Predict the 3D structure of the following.
Amino acid sequence: MRVAIAEDLFLLRDGLTRMLEAHGLEISAAVDNGTDLLAAIRADKPDVAIVDVRLPPTFTDEGLRAALTARKEIPGLPVLVLSQYVEQLYARELMADGTGGIGYLLKDRVFDSTQFVDAVRRVAAGGTAMDPEVISRLLARNTGNDSLTVLSPREREVLSLMAEGRSNAAIAQRMVITERAVAKHTASIFLKLDLQPSDDDNRRVLAVLAHLNA
Amino acid sequence: MSNQSLSAQVAGGVTAVGRGLVFFALTLTSLVLLAVPLLALTLTGWGFGFAIYAPSWESFDRRVFLFAVMLIAVLVVLPLLFLGILTMLRQLANLIRRLSGGWCGVPIAVPYKPVPVGLRRYRRLLRLLEDVATWRDLGWIVGSACVGTVLTAGPAVLIAFGLAGIGRTTHGDGLRNVILGSMLVTASVFAAPWLLRAYAALASSLLAPTGGAELARRVEHLAQTRSETIDTGAAEIRRIERDLHDGAQARLVAMGMTLDAAGHLIDEDPKAARALLIEARDNSAKALAELRALVRGILPPVLADRGVADAIRALALDTPLRTHLVSDLGGRPPAPVESAAYFAVSELLANVSKHAQAGQAWVDIRYTEGMLRIGVSDDGNGGADAAHGTGLQGIERRLAAFDGVLAISSPPGGPTAVTMEIPCALR
């Protein structure tokens, strides 16, 4: 699997490169700004791009905009956006096209390399990797509106893990329950929230996120 | 000219005649008020004259008695009289200032220097006499009596004269009287609004604050807001220092110690060392989370990235309250203004969530005529009051540093609407 990285801080860029290589991923490009990233992607399309939100020259949301431009130019290009902060507004913008292959994670998540590489692979495969903080704030907001009171606490836990983009198997492992129990919970969630059930993991996640963002 | 605008002009003229008469009455009242202390002064002068140069029919005792009475009058009665009259004249002048704004479209600011409360009567009188605005008020009464009466009562007098002429048609030259009288009445009605405006201009020239007074006010305002801004800034820096000291710094120290302990254990007890390393990792994640929260309180990322409108949009996405945002900005205000506006809206929305029991909130951001205008309203139960809420006062103070203002409409039962205006240029 080939990865393009855009991160302006040398230490982090270097650390990411080494970590991903240690897990058997290939780095197709490692650049420090958005313009170079776009050029690298056009010249040699990677399987996934990892982009820092704040990049030179403006040090604002340069990286986010580069990611959105890249996805406009190459529809469906998997992009994982990293940031010191997660913002609902940016999460929405990234998910606006309604297709998968999107990740938005706090930089802290690289602390757990196994989980992080898992997220990179998931995004590259067209899945979703939303930071738990994005999801918890999304759920907090929806709880205030009473739209989630129909769910049991257990179901809410499954919902948040599912919204992060995890598969049934991963949720089962995380919650220490069987995969069949997870499937039962998801079926119940979809029924209670009046969502169209789907066997496809990715489409299921997108439906949940769309519901929470409504 | 259409009928409607003609009738509107006539109505306006008649109204102006009436208003002129009100001004005339106010001028007469002030003249009477002014005459009282002058008369008192004259009488006291005569009294002293009598006491000193009295004719031979007065006994010495009587002269001493008269002298004593006059002395008491000068020391006690006259100051009290002056104080009372000057206070009444100020109220009268303020009434004219208000009416000039409301009736003639020439608003006049109140020019008086503040008189501290709890001052003794003599000192208060001295303060009034020191204030140049007091003497300008007196000048106004004289000017108003000489010129103002013509401008205010003139039209009414001419109309009365014209009507009297029209009424006297029994004599031979009736037609001429009717024509001349009608012309007089018509001319007066049409001229009245102009004369009233001229009167307001005259009033403004003497009753409005002088350039110096205006400057003094401005300097006072700037000095006050500057010291408040410095205080707020210093308090904020202290808070940040304390948060760093108790939060991220402490965690980093703990992390260093944990890592050191792990280093010692790694050969003898790799399992325990591993547990310590995980603990250190978790502590670094917590330190990062605290730093993030701290930075969010100083300068929210979206505000830095995109400006005030998107920052408020991001804020709205984080609150359970349904918040609708309308924004119409051609560019970005200066960073300090953006920051003040953002934190003001943030605090207002927090207030709405906490106190208003509202279902929805609306935020409206626009830039017109050199002003950033932000409206925040909700459908809650109202009753917000800047005089009681320290939060609202804090917002007011922070906006004042930019010459910004805040207005609240929050009747009991709601809804609440807060409007903020900050003068600034867009970049």
Remarks:
- The longest strand of chain B covers residues 360-368.
- Chain B is about 75% helix and 10% strand.
